[in-house]
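retry 2 of 3: previous attempt timed out while embedding tetrahydrodeoxyuridine. Reduced batch size to 1 and resubmitted. Inputs unchanged:
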Amino acid sequence: MQINQDHLYKNYPDNILKDVDAEKTLKIAADAAENAYAPYSKFKVGACALFEDGKTYSGCNVENASYGLTLCAERNALSSAITEGQKTKLIAVAIYSPNAKSCFPCGACRQWITEFSKEAVVIVESSEGKPQVFSIKELLPFSFELDQTTSL
Ligand code: THU
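retry 2 succeeded.
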């Protein structure tokens, strides 16, 4: 299907999305959101991380009575991938919430995504129910890196 790339970062490689089934990743994220443990916020989130070898990993948010200990869906998906030995490049992270029209990743999750690829894309559902694609570079420009060789 044709996905909306209007928001794609202008320097992003044209062919990066050729193997990405955006709707499938959003469906996996939506299924994971059903398992969310969100008794406090009631805000369910699911994520699907797609890697270069085609494997996908899902995650949901897991809250805690000590609110600040809550784990986000995206970081749970990425943790699963690493735990299962995933070594290829991160291609995309899809995020879905049944409680929001478009569910964008929080700042901490953006930093986690950029850790595994500076060229990953983030897929969220638009208010019309269509996949929308953003590059992690446009969602988190000037991300933190230990090797701070960039200067302004
Ligand atoms: N949440 C995520 O799972 N991912 C995000 O990127 C933002 C927020 C969760 C955390 C919490 O359980 C709920 O959404 C409300 O903040």
